[in-house]
Amino acid sequence: MMARSNREIASQVVERLDIKPGDRVLEVGFGPGMAIQLIAAKISSGKVTGIDCSEEMMKLATARNAAAISSGKVELRLGSVEALPFNSDTFDKALAINSMQVWPDAVAGLREIWRVLKPCGTVALVGFTPYSGQAKEGLTIALTIAGFASARMMDLDGNFCVLAVKP
Question: In terms of pTM, does the model score above 0.90?
């Protein structure tokens, strides 16, 4: 059910991120792996990496992306946004769909994403529905506090998306 409900929003954000064939992309809170699957279809020499704190989501996403994992195009890990197990300046793009509202410390998570993004890398926080518990207010400010620039909000068919860039 989660995969079906997130498929459209995942498709929209993947388009907005303008993912190139060689990009390295991070998804925080990959859930059942729908966006991972869509991103893997867009990259050829790049890689998509996901991190999620749920063992159940890890099982679902691993099953959905088994071929891409076997080929080395996809890597999935258990972990938390507050302590990303990646080197600084690793990823070209990052996204989080329907997960930020459950992060224990949103600004700490955003700072970690900022750390692992390359300069000029883009982050997208998306999929917040009116029922998610995540308010629009304060998101662009949180991104700015975390070090991002050019934060902008957009509407995605009743949901909202915030894009920002690491200067």
Answer: yes
